[in-house]
Write a structure and sequence with these properties.
Elements lengths: L2 H8 L5 H8 L3 H10 L5 H11 L3 H5 L21 H24 L12 H9 L9 H11 L4 H6 L3 H7 L16 H13 L3 H18 L4 H16 L7 H16 L6 H4 L3 H10 L19
Helix pairs in contact: 1-3, 2-3, 12-13, 14-16
Length: 301
């Protein structure tokens, strides 16, 4: 049994437009699958399987002729990974958001062309004796009118943050201030951390950059190791972490000393990076080979 026939049987007697809406397709696309045998993309097939509550492997396997389909094994929420759980939450949110949007379009004063004839609906409702049921054709619209004052609650319940705040005491972090856990406040804290991160974090980020570059540029191993050592010294000696420009300047002077086979003395090691750059210029081959001063004779006392 092919995919189209399975969908045809599963949707017999069901509203195809509602199905298309839940899956995120045009009604014509669902019709093409059923009537023309169009094969959907894998993501669409997965959505159809979820909405119709059938196993995906059964739905896409044309060699499976068993019908009705095997029962879909249930999964508890604890079996979902974080991404699957967020997709499920997002799917339910979007489904309710679509319903709410359509209801709002029937009420929005700036979009009267999308409204039903509310005066006519009101006339039918007011013509109904209080001891009799409302006419079926206006029940949905009367229920929507009744919900007008409840729409803010429907809007807020779409937000996981709003639901978490409503049940704050029962949620993780219930002993904390709910304001501190709101996404807006968390972003403010994040920007503060980003503007002035701890020194160790800055050093770690630099180290990770060197690791990434080393994997692609292994011929620069000595340079990246030198950068790593400078970052480590800054942390061990409670000094500011040098930025990339300062690290590069330090490496330039280190290369000059290595080329001249001269080790910088301790005073040179402790100079500022600006001083190292000056020393590098002095050690440049354009100014002649680097020379060391001969040791001075000690004066006789």
């Amino acid at each position: 049994m092919d995919f189209a026939e399975k969908i045809r049987r599963l949707t017999a007697g069901k509203n195809k437009s509602a199905l298309a809406e839940e899956v995120g397709l045009r009604a014509a696309a669902v019709s093409d699958i059923i009537n023309k045998g169009h094969e959907p993309k894998s993501a669409t097939a997965l959505k159809l399987a979820r909405v119709l509550n059938v196993p995906l492997d059964w739905l896409v396997d044309d060699d499976r002729d068993d019908y009705p389909p095997p029962e879909q094994p249930g999964r508890s929420l604890s079996e979902y990974d974080d991404e699957e759980l967020m997709i499920e939450v997002a799917t339910r949110y979007r489904r309710e958001a679509v319903r709410l949007y359509k209801d709002l379009m029937r009420l929005d004063p700036e979009l009267k062309e999308t409204h039903p004839d509310w005066d006519q609906i009101a006339a039918k409702a007011l013509s109904t004796p209080l001891n009799q049921p409302l006419p079926p054709e206006i029940e949905r619209d009367v229920a929507l009118a009744r919900e007008l004052l409840m729409l803010p609650w429907r809007i807020n319940r779409l937000s996981p943050e709003s639901v978490a705040e409503l049940h704050h005491k029962q949620m993780p972090g219930g002993q904390m201030s709910p304001e501190a856990l709101q996404s807006e406040d968390l972003m403010i804290t994040y920007r503060r951390c980003l503007d002035n991160p701890p020194r160790g974090v800055t050093a770690i980020l630099g180290y990770l950059d060197f690791r990434l570059a080393y994997s692609a540029l292994k011929d620069r191993r000595d340079e990246f190791d030198y950068y790593r050592e400078l970052l480590l010294k800054a942390i061990e000696n409670d000094k500011p972490v040098p930025d990339q420009y300062q690290l590069t300047a330090a490496w330039d002077i280190a290369k000059k000393f290595r080329q001249d086979q001269v080790e910088p003395d301790e005073s040179t090691r402790q100079e500022s990076f600006a001083g190292l750059k000056t020393a590098a210029r002095k050690a440049s081959p354009r100014r002649g080979p680097h020379k060391t001063n001969p040791p001075q004779k000690q004066r006789n006392s």
